[in-house]
Design goal:
The model has no long low-confidence stretch (mean pLDDT about 95). The protein has helices at about 15-20, 50-65; strands at about 5-10, 35-40, 80-85, 90-100. The chain has 2 helices and 4 strands, in the order βαβαββ. It is an alpha+beta fold and about 100 residues long. The longest helix is centred in the middle third of the chain and has 15 residues, at about 50-65.
Length: about 100
């Protein structure tokens, strides 16, 4: 099974939607642009948001088992995927990349 590198690429914050629809909450996303996590198969990396993991884990699992070329040529690197978490108020985009044997 291959490891998968997960990099936080972008974070959005839709304050107009938050003000109109979201109840006030004390704690929001802990992600930071550039932060890197390493997933070892199906195991969620320590400190990785559970909600975000629910969104990206099917792609992590596929990549860790040798899957590639999602959606017939969608990504320039066929051993990668750009997936966002499902938070409609403050979505985070993650770059998922299979770690090659030479990077281990």
């Amino acid at each position: 099974m291959k490891k998968v590198k997960i990099t936080v690429m972008k974070m959005a914050n839709y304050t107009d939607l938050i003000e109109k629809y979201e109840n006030p909450i004390l704690h929001t996303c802990d992600m930071e642009i550039g932060k890197v996590f390493i997933a070892n198969g199906w195991s969620r990396p320590k400190g990785f948001c559970l909600s975000a993991w629910d969104s990206i884990s099917p792609f992590v699992l596929a990549l860790s088992h040798g899957g590639e070329d999602f959606y017939d040529g969608w990504m320039k690197n066929k051993k990668s995927a750009m997936i966002s978490c499902n938070d409609g108020f403050r979505p985070v985009s993650f770059l998922l990349e299979t770690i090659t044997d030479s990077e281990n």
